[in-house]
Design a protein that fits this description.
- InterPro entries: ATPase_NBD.
- This is Type II secretion system ATPase PulM, putative.
- It contains seven helices and 13 strands.
- With 306 residues, the protein is of the alpha/beta class.
- The longest helix is centred in the C-terminal third of the chain and has 18 residues, at 218-235.
Length: 306
């Protein structure tokens, strides 16, 4: 951050996307962006082992990218592939306790998803709602402490201090909702090179979510989406009828028929022109989930940094 400028980094298997934004009274403006490929097989998203395979290449590429945006030593928001950790909605039978007790409880809730002991887990969470009887729904994003430590240590060596670390799907959801583009109940489907995510939004809140490795065939895509929706419809019947939005449709063009068959409806694309460029910035980043995630996590710093 420099002044009122905020930087988001999305780190992907094929490279990194950096977006610098600033606040204005009307909208968030992009004032700079960069896209770089790793010079070698540098990064492999995984929740069970260290992700960065070529540390020197990683540090040098991140440093060059940040310097091209005028950042030498600064705080950034970091968006990681969903494959780096686990995102779950957990139901508690009582209100979530504050402080360390609440965090420890959530670590016990998600430990089976990561196959780790609670002390080896780092997490972030958001309370989605509490019923009159005290039952509480919590969205939890968790990852191995060892995995996140490697990212943060190497980013620090490159001149970047992560002020916020979240996963691509959550940042993508924030990107759309912060602009009040997708305000009705809907299903958001996002497909990256490593993961497939489905998020059901109802009454302005995340009602259900599913994050899986990217399917290797149209048949597996159909099975994953149709089984997920069938389960959701038992609790939220509207999952069968709400509009379905597919981010980055080009990624699934050859399998669109199978996807829409599983959805039971046509897949729409979110309204265009969601990236607002500052005057003088001619080129626009491509409309991919990586750039949207980078922008979304940068915007999250508005409520974190002064």
């Amino acid at each position: 951050m420099i002044g009122q400028r905020f930087v988001g980094l999305s780190l992907c298997e094929d490279g990194l996307r950096a977006v610098m934004v600033r606040r204005s009274r009307k909208q968030t403006q992009i004032i700079g962006w960069q896209s770089r490929s790793w010079p070698s097989v540098c990064l492999k998203p995984d929740y069970q082992r260290l992700n960065i395979l070529e540390e020197d290449s990683f540090v040098n590429t991140v440093r060059e990218t940040l310097r091209s945006l005028g950042i030498i030593n600064g705080r950034v928001a970091l968006s990681l592939s969903d494959a780096v950790g686990k995102i779950v909605i957990t139901d508690l039978n009582e209100p979530l306790k504050r402080g360390r007790d609440g965090i420890n409880l959530l670590k016990w809730q998600v430990r089976e998803h990561l196959l780790l002991d609670p002390e080896e887990i780092r997490l972030d969470f958001q309370v989605l709602g509490t019923e009159p009887g005290g039952k509480t729904r919590v969205l939890v994003a968790a990852a191995a402490k060892e995995v996140l430590d490697q990212y943060e240590n190497l980013l620090a060596a490159a001149g970047a201090i992560p002020a916020l670390v979240l996963f691509d799907s959550l940042n993508l959801m924030h990107f759309y909702h912060s602009k009040r583009i997708l305000t009705c109940d809907h299903l958001l489907v996002a497909w990256t090179s490593t993961t497939l995510s489905l998020q059901l939004i109802g009454n302005g809140q995340l009602q259900a979510c599913r994050f899986r490795p990217a399917p290797a065939s149209e048949k597996k895509l159909y099975q994953e989406v149709s089984c997920t929706l069938a389960k959701w419809e038992q609790t939220w019947p509207e999952a069968a009828t709400v509009p379905a939005y597919l981010h980055d449709l080009s990624r699934t063009s050859i399998w669109r028929e199978g996807l829409e068959g599983a959805l039971g409806r046509s897949a729409q694309t979110p309204p265009p022109q969601l990236l607002f460029l500052a005057p003088g910035l001619e080129d626009s980043p491509s409309s991919t989930s990586d750039f949207y995630a980078a922008s979304g996590c940068a915007e999250r710093l508005f409520g974190v940094l002064p």
